[in-house]
Amino acid sequence: MTSFGTQHLRSSIKINTSLVQWWRPLISAVITFGLTVACIGFGHPEYAVPVAIGSWFAGITDSGDPIGVYWRAMAWTTAFVTFAATLGSLVSNSPLAQLIVVALMALACGFVGCLGPTPMTNGIVTLVVYSVFAGQPAAHRSAFTTGLLILLGGITCILITVGLYALARSPGFSARPVTGMPVLGSLRSHLHVTDSFVRHSVRLAVVMIFATGLAAWLDWPHHYWIPMTVAWIARPARDATVEKVVHRMLGTLVGILLAVLLINDTGMNLYVLAVISAVGIAISLIFLRANYPIAVVGLTLAVIALFAIDGEPVDETAPYRVAATLLAGMIALLGTFIWPSARSIAEQKSPQ
User: Fold this and answer.
1) Domain for residue 263, yes or no?
2) C-beta of residue 74 within 8 angstroms of C-beta of residue 68
């Protein structure tokens, strides 16, 4: 057990330099920063969270493919997170509806991982975005306004990114994703009780129902943090889930500490918060595949700064975020014992 834990701790500080990306993450971070500043400048800081999430998450499935593949992946991700944010906002005031919807969402988002790494990532971020907006009732923003703002952020990021590649005369605009078996055929081939992704989707539904219900019952500030974290770290393979839990906890704790120190030191100036969120977004995307804990540090910084722009306090809620992360890790680990896989499976390589 000690060597097992040591293995994950060692992997948390190992950076795969061949997977570090710079150009596209920096583009996304600058675009997101510009959109966030525009929301603040026009007197609507409450729009910053959905617009920034739309722009940020548009590029989260980037695996270094040619621009033709990349912009298509961005478009699909934008569509999925727009749907998830709208649906989450619609049910945000109904605990029962949240439980029903999260069960269905988890079943679908967990199962689509059988189609490959990019669909798996889209399933994860879709469930994450749903959890955030379902757990954050926003009286100052309708569900459809939230969805439109997410869509605006995603489309803006896609258009500017594609435009920059066009100006640079970059090749690869005609490239398309390599497809194997048709989607429906591939999904049908996995529809049996011994399939690892069927089992994963059921486990994911159970733990997301539990995490969502527990979050509502505890009623902590930002209780969406519990189901959101479970959605990030739950994996089809037990060892992969354990690794994600260890890495997630390390990255989140460091990210929360940095966020508190930076925001306390610089104050709650909205433009400074926009800079902090942009730095966090850049870090999260640059190290997304190269080192997960570092990416989580950036993700945590960005989320806390963005929601601070929306008026959420930082100091008094930091302990709740730490406790929520620990609870989510335990829930995800317990979930690995629900209907265990018939055999060990090779973990799909996903950045989350």
Assistant:
1) yes
2) no
**Closest to 66 measured CA to CA, from 164, 157, 172:** 172
- As given in the structure block, the two tokens for residue 231 are 């959605």
Residue 279 maps to a domain = yes
Q: Does 20 reside within a domain?
A: yes
Question: Tens digits of per-residue pLDDT, 282-338?
Answer: 999 999 888 999 999 999 999 999 989 988 888 877 889 899 999 999 999 998 887
Range of the domain at 43: 8-169+191-335
Total domains in the chain come to 1
- Residue found by looking up tokens 């950036």 in the block: 298
Q: Is residue 266 part of a domain?
A: yes
CA dist 329 and 320 (Å) reads 14
Quick: pLDDT tens for 237-282.
878 888 888 888 899 999 999 999 998 877 789 999 999 999 999 9
The CB-side HSE value for 110 (13 A sphere, CA atoms) comes to: 28
Q: What is the pTM of this model?
A: 0.91
